[in-house]
Design a protein that fits this description.
392 residues; alpha/beta; Rossmann fold; 2 domains; 8-stranded mixed beta sheet; 14 helices; 54% helix
């Protein structure tokens, strides 16, 4: 049994493509700069937009909005490039706006200890009336929008949730200064819970355990308010991240937030166990239930779930393996990699004609998309085709 397992794993290493599908090093060619003459702010604002590596104007993508563009745009965009490139998150458009005056733009009402504070509603007008329309008009953006902010940027993210909750589908607030302006966010939160008792959104809040001053206790108090009043329709999380402070919490909190937004951990094990115990019906139920419960947040990961299909063929669960690949083809109809996986599964379940068809489709799609050999090895697919033909 050990020899058989090792041989199968070695075969996978030889036949499977590299995990990455696209190059992310060329991000400069995918990043576009726009200057908005803002009526809401009465000044110019510079906005960056980065499209995914495999951007296709014929489909639409969720959009991530980053207020602190000069600090966090590159961090967020590069992180999401990497995660999408490895089929962990879906492809997304990322946009960031360059700051001019954070105190003025992010704090809802004046705080005597911080100059210029108190004009967050003007900034929110810029977001609603100018920034979002620019991205929507010029890019293939989906209705799903994600807002992520840090520190005072977390304040504007929560202020947006509390006062314009339908603007975004997901809100990520890291290291938020919930104590600012005599706890104005607490007042806004209480009103929000009263006015929107059935609001459906994703909210992630996190602070570093070493964040100084009143940030941790005030954030904990705000989370307690969510615990008391948040409706069941609101999916919210509050974390105190260990071994981080105000700034170290940004990359770790961002990662935890997006992993919660696009939950996929152990989906491969869940699918495998379901296939073993419930057969094809369990496979179909897995995909249907994830699609229904998560909607746009469900990514049918071709690599993780494709490996499940190949493993099922080793366990003589051919129908279940084919059901997995049928679902993956529905989720990724133009994926050369999924076509290659399908060919391998068909070959291992003694369906040579279908295997040849899928291998040929994989080569066609790879050529049409101009995929790099790091993404898919056409010569190996061709060798599989020749192997099948020689055996017929």
């Amino acid at each position: 049994m050990l020899k058989k397992t090792l041989a199968f794993q070695f075969t996978l290493l030889i036949l499977l493509p590299s995990v990455s599908l696209a190059d992310t090093w060329n991000s400069a060619t995918r990043t576009h700069t726009h200057v908005i003459q803002s009526d809401a702010l009465e000044e110019e604002r510079t906005v960056m937009v980065r499209t995914p590596p495999d951007y296709n104007p014929g489909q639409t993508y969720p959009v991530v909005f980053v207020p602190d563009g000069e600090w966090n745009f590159e961090l967020v965009a590069s992180y999401l490039d990497y995660m999408a490139d490895n089929d962990i998150f879906p492809d997304m458009i990322v946009t960031g706006a360059i700051n001019v005056n954070r105190n003025r733009d992010y704090i809802p009402r004046p705080d005597p200890h911080y100059r210029d504070t108190g004009q967050a509603n003007r900034y929110l007008g810029f977001v609603k009336e100018e920034w979002i329309p620019l991205v929507s008009d010029r890019y293939a953006s989906a209705p799903q929008r994600i807002l992520i902010g840090h520190s005072f940027g977390g304040v504007i993210a929560l202020h947006t949730l509390f006062t314009e909750p339908e603007l975004f589908s997901a809100y990520i607030a890291l290291g938020s200064s919930a104590w600012i302006a005599d706890r104005v966010l607490f007042e806004e939160a209480e009103e929000y819970f009263q006015q929107y008792p059935q609001h459906d959104a994703f909210v992630y809040m996190a602070v570093g355990e070493g964040d100084g001053g009143p940030t941790v206790p005030s954030s904990r108090d705000l989370a307690a308010l969510f615990e008391l009043h948040a409706p069941n329709t609101l999916e919210w999380t509050f974390d105190i991240t260990e071994q981080t402070d105000h700034f170290k919490n940004v990359p770790s909190g961002m990662h935890d937030a997006f992993m919660a937004l696009f939950p996929a951990w152990n989906f491969d094990q869940e699918l495998k166990l379901g296939a073993r115990s419930g057969g094809v019906d369990a496979v179909n139920s897995f995909f249907a239930s994830k699609t229904e419960s998560l909607g746009w947040r469900f990514l049918a990961a071709w690599f993780d779930l494709g490996i499940v299909a190949l493993n099922l063929t080793r366990e003589d669960l051919g129908p279940e393996a084919l059901a997995v690949m049928e679902a993956l083809r529905q989720h990724h109809p133009q994926s050369a990699i999924v076509a290659e996986f399908s060919g391998m599964v068909y070959e291992r379940t003694s369906n040579p004609d279908q295997a040849l068809e899928e291998y040929a489709r994989a080569i066609q799609l790879a050529n049409e998309l101009g995929l790099h050999p790091n993404a898919i090895h056409i010569d190996r697919i061709q060798a599989s085709i020749e192997r099948i033909r020689e055996s017929q």
